[in-house]
Design brief:
2 copies of one chain form a homodimer. Chain A is elongated, with a radius of gyration of 22 Å. In chain A, the strands form 8 sheets. In chain A, strands 5-2-1-9-21-20 form a 6-stranded mixed sheet. In chain A, helix 1 packs parallel to helix 8. Chain A has 10 helices and 25 strands. Chain A has helices at 19-27, 50-54, 67-71, 132-151, 155-161, 171-187, 217-229, 320-339, 379-392, 396-412; strands spanning 11-15, 34-39, 43-45, 64-66, 77-81, 84-88, 93-96, 99-102, 105-108, 112-114, 163-167, 201-205, 233-235, 240-244, 247-250, 253-256, 259-262, 266-268, 285-286, 292-293, 296-301, 306-307, 358-363, 366-371, 374-377.
Chain lengths: 432, 432
């Protein structure tokens, strides 16, 4: 195809190399525009497996892929590692560390952050799980707590060190709680002499009356049974009233725990505020059916940062399949615009969420899956979960490495990533 | 075998889970004593491959193995994750975070630290490579420098960001310099749009007239040729006069470089000072032929922290084969003592270093190896190097994972671990 000199071509700035931004870049046809992809990290993160890094099942590099490596076959795409600090929609400019970028189209996939329901001060005592660094910090803190318990003489303090509280009974919370319980009962069991890791407490707190509230009731019930079989204490219909250092208050009860992990609400990235667009209570941007920002046909917001009811009247969930689909849809819309020689909002297609189903894994051979009318649980759901996640993992090397580690863990009941780093005096760095 | 109640048995405290301490624990016969192994990390580190983590070839967990996992088949051994703060040899006590430990035998494998030749202030600007955290910090800083160069407009500054200085032409320095050159020329080459990573400068500085001074002259010559073929600028017979932020002064010449890595001298761990034993200029403890401390037949010092001329008159080198052998020798000596019903220094065997040969890899298909009278270089040496290192790597999973990543990198010219972590705002944690 003939490619006009890049300067003459419209400039598309994509912010965020998550599922939405990455899939926009992958699907956008070559030759129509120059694309600049900005992310503050140098890697795309496969978030659905992030909890396995936090629970020592996988290493950080297994679920991350350098953005440049994924996209280095795109001739008219540039990757920039920079922090976006704000937007000037009127002037069509993105402000970021090291300058400003002018755009003709702006594609936003800023993702979400943990929401503490108006209690930002809780964040310090109950970290969320959004980035590799979060996962590595959680892994380190959990493993360190068991090490300290081993040398702790005070019985009460030892119990606290061996207690993990997970807040939020959605997929993230359920998967974390299940994996922690399994880590203690099957993996760490043989590692210690004085403490008995199988006595570790894992407490899952959920405000609604059931776990996996977005799943059908029977899936929730099955997930609950499977969690309890793993020894997870599930507290349903209980709201967190306070979080302090090593302490969480739930329904009047005070639970002392060395580790409190926040798997609850997701809010939009604070950057979205600087868009000046209308948002819902969680700060998610309300967008039009074509995924563009009201009043700004040249700006698209995608994925977890958005609140949208699609053309079929479905609320689009904050799941990675939705983010992927929105990225692909936006790529089509912008490409059509450019082929038509300019913006034509009236002719744009409206996005419809295609539900590929949802699944959550609870532990070794335990999971629930919903595919349309079909509900699976236990072993078949677990196998399904493995295949789907392996399939969508970006990069051959990662697929291969993850598969071999899963097989290894399954056969040996060991986990390779039980390594504590980032504790040596004054070390700012991180990750393998 | 009949095992008397543990309290009645003598107590051996082993400090350090490096090659020396770990191999003492592995080889010490069961039933003779209680052993407590103390390390401030929870993992044993396979240091010979540490440079591959620093150069994004391997992930941290590939070369680390949880100490508890390695030794959990030892009935009378306890692992303690704690920081040793000092020794009271007279009272036979080890001071560490969380209390004191009494011992009947003390086995010390404290390892070494980077030596800045009396200029500790250089450490801040030229990190050494001793721990996983060091390696991860170096990997992050190198990858970040290329990312910044990509968006840097000032030509001079950009050149500095793409310059890496390695100080020290020993195995560590040579392996680092070779791997950095290769990372830039073959791996990062395709990743960037504005900069040309193949133009990156890697400068290796060595004070003596040749690299790998401990190898035979022809090996040094061949290593030099192979380094230069990779584009490494080797400065021989030049001493570092000053190190400042982003700047190193060598023989009057000022070299500006965003990354300066210290691969030079090794000094003993500062803790050795608190032993009050006689040391050499590098602070290494002078020990007796049986590896015990003069005047303290119940205290053994092993590995990099020691200075010893063995019974054959050979200076024992600071290499991991020596550390392994010393650990095994000490285990035999202490076991003989106990079987003989007490210390019998006069009857103890003297240690003799068995030279298994030495090798260094310079890059893809490039290496030098010396086995007795046989000298290899280039491809055969490199294959030999691969086999030996894979063979000695602890843990099946690690062997498997490392082998598969080596194959992957060799075939695809890619490196899986090009992931930057530990940079998200205020993240104290680290590592995968």
């Amino acid at each position: 195809m003939s490619t006009p000199p890049s300067k003459s071509r419209p400039h598309i700035v994509v912010v965020g190399a998550g599922f939405a931004g990455l899939n926009f870049c992958k699907d956008f046809p070559p030759g129509l525009a120059r694309i600049t992809l900005i992310d503050r990290q140098n890697h795309h993160l496969f978030q659905p497996l992030l909890y396995q890094v936090a629970t020592a099942g996988l290493s950080a590099v297994d679920i991350a892929q350098p953005v440049r490596a994924i996209l280095n076959d795109k001739p008219d795409l540039e990757v920039m590692m920079a922090e976006v600090t704000g937007f000037d929609l009127a002037a069509r400019r993105v402000r970021c560390t090291g300058g400003e970028l002018a755009y003709d189209y702006l594609i936003l996939g800023l993702g979400g952050v943990a929401s503490y329901f108006g209690h930002p001060e809780w964040a310090a005592h109950a970290p969320g799980l959004k980035s590799l660094d979060d996962a590595l910090r959680i892994r380190r803190d959990i493993l360190l707590a068991f090490e300290r318990a081993e040398t702790e003489t005070d019985e009460q303090r030892r119990r606290e060190l061996m207690t993990i509280v997970v807040v939020g009974g959605g997929p993230t919370g359920v998967e974390l709680a299940g994996a922690f319980a399994e880590l203690a009962r099957t993996v760490l069991k043989r590692d210690f002499d004085r403490i008995d890791p199988t006595k570790a407490r894992v407490i899952l707190i959920e405000g609604s009356p059931r776990v996996l509230a977005s799943f059908p009731p029977e899936s929730s019930a099955s997930a609950l049974r499977q969690l309890e079989r793993l020894g997870v204490e599930v507290r349903l219909g209980r709201h967190v009233e306070a979080v302090r250092a090593g302490e969480v208050v739930v329904g009047g009860e005070v639970i002392r725990a060395a580790n409190i992990i926040w798997g609850a609400g997701v809010a939009a990235n604070p950057l979205t505020l600087s868009l000046g667009a209308e948002t819902d209570r969680a700060g998610r941007v309300k967008i039009l059916p074509d995924l563009s920002l009201p009043g700004h046909p040249e700006v698209f917001a995608l994925g977890d940062m958005t609140a949208l009811t699609d053309r079929r009247g479905r609320v689009v969930p904050g799941l990675c399949p939705a983010a992927i689909q929105m990225g692909q849809h936006a790529a089509r819309v912008v490409a059509d615009d450019l082929r038509a020689g300019g913006q034509s909002p009236e002719r744009r297609k409206a996005y419809a969420y295609f539900d590929k189903g949802s699944m959550a894994t609870i532990g070794r051979s335990k999971a629930v899956a919903v595919l349309g009318r079909f509900h699976f649980s236990g072993y078949p759901a677990w196998v399904l979960w493995l295949c789907v996640h392996l399939l969508f993992l970006v990069g051959f090397r990662n697929k291969f490495s993850v598969l071999s580690q899963w097989i290894y863990s399954y056969v040996t009941y060991k986990r390779g990533a039980r390594i504590i780093t980032g504790v040596s005096s004054g070390n700012p760095a991180g990750s393998a």
